[in-house]
């Protein structure tokens, strides 16, 4: 395996008496789409929060692209190329999709928002924003008000906003949550294209999508990785079946 772009060593996080991540270790090489799966309460979102700097661990360390980022704040990690979708939890509904992404470009560049001047009028903001929108398949919706976009398009737009920061690695926390079958299928195709260019860490409950996309899967239970392997080996892993997937689910969905 090549030198990992993300190395997590013995990461621990406690909330009072609750252990959310328990001596957790991961090594993700460049170019991999690595999925994290596990039951509710397994510590998946807590892990993402620690990777992005929203939560500081009680122990362990995080190495990103050769730099120890364990104690760096969110904006420093973003500047190094680590981006999380849905960091901006509220889209500007009365702005267009293009305006929203242009504002993300502007914020990443360290400039203050200038709401009185349409950001899309500035080429230095508009061009990278449009490029990000095209990458998620929303080019024909760029000039539509966000309030008119569907739930699935909101998710795509949030990924475009993360892409606008020109990341080396993308962290996705349940990008298909709340989507119907058609929207989920479009998101799978979007991620399939993005994985050709970016390293991606994906947390997702949609097992069909996970097994279609992932190069490797780590299974998290009670804050510990109980298995890390290829999708095919994860399907056949007896401990994973007992802990999470379930015999019937694996047999029904994956033959």
Give a brief rundown of this model:
With 255 residues, the protein is an alpha/beta fold.
Question: Mind explaining what this structure looks like?
Answer:
With 255 residues, this protein is an alpha/beta fold. It has two domains: 1-81 and 167-255, Rossmann fold; 87-166, no CATH class. The protein is built from ten helices and ten strands. The chain has helices at residues 44-52, 74-80, 97-108, 123-135, 151-163, 181-194, 207-213, 231-236, 238-245, 247-254; strands at 6-15, 18-28, 33-37, 59-64, 67-68, 82-84, 169-173, 199-203, 216-221, 224-229. The protein has a six-stranded mixed sheet with strand order 6-7-8-3-9-10, with helices on both faces. Strands 2-1-4-5 form a four-stranded antiparallel sheet, with helices on one face. Strand 9 (216-221) and strand 10 form a beta hairpin. The longest helix is centred in the C-terminal third of the chain and has 14 residues, at 181-194. The model is unreliable at 250-255 (pLDDT under 50).
Specify the helix fraction band. 25-40%
N-to-C CA distance: 29 Å
Give me the secondary-structure category.
alpha/beta
- Morphology: globular
> What is the number of helices?
10
Question: Secondary structure elements and their pairing?
Answer:
Layout: E1 6-15, E2 18-28, E3 33-37, H1 44-52, E4 59-64, E5 67-68, H2 74-80, E6 82-84, H3 97-108, H4 123-135, H5 151-163, E7 169-173, H6 181-194, E8 199-203, H7 207-213, E9 216-221, E10 224-229, H8 231-236, H9 238-245, H10 247-254
Parallel strand pairs: 3-8, 3-9, 6-7, 7-8
Antiparallel strand pairs: 1-2, 1-4, 4-5, 9-10
Helix pairs in contact: 3-4, 3-5, 4-5
